[in-house]
Amino acid sequence: MKFDQIPGFKAAYLINGNEMRKVAGEDIKVDLKKLADFLAENYRIGKDEAEKLDMGDLLGFAMILDDLGIAFMGNYVVFVDALKTNWNKVLEAFQEVLA
Fold first, then answer.
1. Is 14 a member of any domain?
2. Per the domain annotation, does 3 fall within a domain?
3. What pLDDT, on a 0 to 100 scale, did the predictor assign at position 95?
4. Of 13, 23, 36, 50, whose CB has the highest number of CB atoms within 10 Å?
């Protein structure tokens, strides 16, 4: 499955450090550097919390901002319409890309 086959798909970006580049979909109208920093900080927090709770390794996370769904796993960030998507399809797409 490719990211663009996810219901409600908007865009997929590849993140490298604090830089993001689009790999599929539309341009997301946000400050990509700030978003990359925000995602990295949330990942660090999630990783620390997962260790405290003995949950194993943190693989990624998803969040919803207004109606925009954002999923982060590996070095990919996927943006979807949070109301129109199927989150299982989002996970399937990540599994195929990261395999």
1. yes
2. no
3. 83
4. 13
